[in-house]
Amino acid sequence: MTDLPKKLKLKLKKRQDNNALRSLTLPESLIDFSSNDYLGFARGPQIYEAAGQIMAKRNFLHNGATGSRLLSGNNGLYMELEELLAGFHNSEVALVFNSGYDANVGFFASVPQRGDTVLFDGLIHASIRDGIGLGLAKSYKFKHNDLENLEAIIRRCRKTGTPDGEIFVVTESVFSMDGDSPDLPALTQVCTSNHCRLVIDEAHAVGVFGPNGAGLAQEYGLEDALFARIVTFGKAIGCHGAAILGSETLKAYLVNFARSFIYTTGLPPHSLATIMAAYDHLSVIHTPIGSDRSGRNTALSLRKNIESFNQNLKTLNLTQFFIPSQSAIHCCLVPNNERAKRLAQNLRESNFDVRPILSPTVPKGMERLRICLHSYNREEEMNGLLKAIQKHTPDFA
């Protein structure tokens, strides 16, 4: 086997010299403050068993999709799931993709055309940036959650752009690295007033916010004002895959032009059944206690944990080190890769699974610990984590 080219070796060495070299590790039996499994769906037996029952009820005994959805890979479970998702999310239709990355790359590489413009939040997810980079439209970033800056860029684009050029604006309803949210009603109004097409990635909001966990767009009743929403199933839903929500014509366009949809084998049937089972369970955990379908209210447990965590940040005088967040994602800023890695290791030695987020994933000087809260985290675990961080604040303050 031939060796890696010299220039690639140099890139690896530079990453190593910056103390930012990534590597794969196996999970440890630590207290989970790192996974995106906000509601515990990925580890719960109920959804695993329910998915099997869905497969058995339909006598669906296939292991794989056997091909792309446009060839042999489509099946009745896909159609049933997309109908379920459209109804649940109050959308005209839904189109399932293999992952959130595939959905974002497929959308932004194919929908905005030459002469169009994409305006994206400065902290938008890498998958959206990659999709924009593959497309033909011009693109500009606006300052994070800064609507005045966005409006100024829109005005400039209208003056200099082609007369028939569309402007697409894209943001996340909960940002994956900061855990904060834009003012979605105000952002929607800006886009409506300026005739822009708004796209919202709801990856970290689905399951956590909105009616039955349907997301922040539905919490504010914005569905009809949006051009598209991306919902993913690898976070709070606890499995894999994603869907783009929008109009019938958008779905038809994506089926014909989104290369990440066209040229890939479909999801295995069991994955589709798992998503269906998870969505059914969402309705259960968001049902008020005392009703016929109520179970352990994990959604309420998560909300209480978020409130408690924020209160304890104030009690322990740690708010200065954290980015404000009302979501399940909380970030403790620890500038410098080495310091962030060292603090994460100290926390692991105290039995807490917290991961450092290093540059270049985040800008230099904005390195951090990314703390994910879950419905199953106990009060004493969260307090213990914050006290461990407090103990080491002299190392990074």
UniProtKB/TrEMBL annotation:
One of its GO terms (molecular function) is pyridoxal phosphate binding. The keyword Transmembrane helix does not apply. One of its GO terms (biological process) is biotin biosynthetic process. It comes from the Bacteria. Keywords: Pyridoxal phosphate, Transferase. The keyword Cytoplasm does not apply. Its cofactor is pyridoxal 5'-phosphate. Pathway: Lipid metabolism. Residues 30-389 form the Aminotransferase class I/classII large domain. PROSITE patterns: AA_TRANSFER_CLASS_2. Pfam families: Aminotran_1_2 (PF00155). Belongs to the class-II pyridoxal-phosphate-dependent aminotransferase family. BioF subfamily. This is 8-amino-7-oxononanoate synthase. It comes from Cerina litoralis.
